[in-house]
Amino acid sequence: MADPYARVYFGDRFVDAAEANLGVATSAVLYGLSVYTVFPVHVDGDQRTAFRLADHFQRMIESCKIIGLDHFAREWDFDRFVEVARQLVAENAPTSDVFVRATVHVDASIPGTRVRGLHTTVSMFVYDAVPIVPQDGMRLKTSTWRRIPDDAIPSRAKVNGAYVNSVLAKQDAIDSGYDDCIFLDGSGHVCELSAANIFLVRNGTLITPDASCDILDGINRRTVLTLAEEDGIPIDQRTVDLTELYIADEVFVTGTSAGVAPVTEVDGRLVGDGVPGPIGDGLRKRHDAALRTDDLRGWVTRLV
Ligand code: PMP
User: ipTM of the assembly?
Assistant: First the structure.
């Protein structure tokens, strides 16, 4: 991830990035007790627009509710969230596309392992929108680390501490010369990547693990499903075997930081002919257009 831009929202004010610090004894630092989201902001001349901001905000509300962080929903509504995003983007005046990371940190000091009622601080910062995976065909490796099951740390909640799981698996993949990992669940079914959802295409049908497969309910996953439905592409959301990826015609991934990006190799086997496929490519173009263009779906929020 690139460095944050100069001005950061932290604890109800805008400060210089160097001043936005959490204490060493806070639960956010000691236990990874924070929830977050990353949303994209597209820059077009003087205009700056956020994509699916209401859905990102809603997922933060839900993440907080799942882990018992009650403050956020009481103190924040969507209008307040938009206003902070608007001011943040205005203060930093990005000249090309950026990502915005918004986090609810539990910043109570040494409270032990509990959460309810503890003080929280919200931060928001901007950084360059550099994709975290290659965009022209990536190579994936199945991880020996299994995805954290929903009944251990809920995958629907975007909890910072859970990302140790992602770090372990992604580092292993990189150390082995791959671009990212594929997480399986305890039964060997496909879940997702370290920070992206996964899709495959077989005989014209778009297949992806359903939302109960220990995955994050990704906002770009939802976007691609909606676009595919509009295009009349048959969709199958279900459990997916690893070997289905080996014989897929196409594989691609979705995520704010990953984009809609093709996979050309899985565990040393070429996907299809080893080049990006037409269905994934079409959905990538449709997704890029949706991100940039205001439309009737209400997915785009004008910030500046
Ligand atoms: N899965 C995980 C584990 C992630 O961290 C992300 C990135 N937020 C995704 C999937 C994709 O989610 P989204 O489309 O909302 O960025």
Answer: 0.99
